[in-house]
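Page 47, continued from p. 46.
Same chain as before, 159 aa.
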Amino acid sequence: MADEMVMPTNLAAPGEVLPGVEAAAAPAGEEAKKKRALKGKGGAHVASGVAHVEASFNNTKVYITDNRGNVVSWCSSGRLGFKGSKRSTAYVGQLVGADAAKRAATLGMREIQVRIFGPGAGRESAVRGVASTGMEVTAIQDVTPVPHNGCRPPKRRRI
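Result:
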């Protein structure tokens, strides 16, 4: 009967510790949450950075990075709970800029450059939102790509 299964007899019930076996030290619920919260981004202090405002016809997004390009905080109109055509309004652009800047301010950011990309309605209002949080805006730059001669037009229509 080599196929018979042998069950170990030294199994402990849940919560019971066997003699000679050390119990794993698990942190309490609150302590575990604090440890996870501290881990996050390492608690890095970032003094200055760059706000990338992406304003399309349908949405407004703001990414705040440090000077090396690593994302520190971000926000979009969808993250704030707006749906549909409300996402592309100037008012929501202001809220998005303010929310992203507040998140970056918690890491110690005080000085910011702004780079605006796109033709949307939330362009200027997102910059106003960033400035309204008390951050010092040192430069505003439009980095929207502009074609030199554009695409080749379609062939002339023959009827």
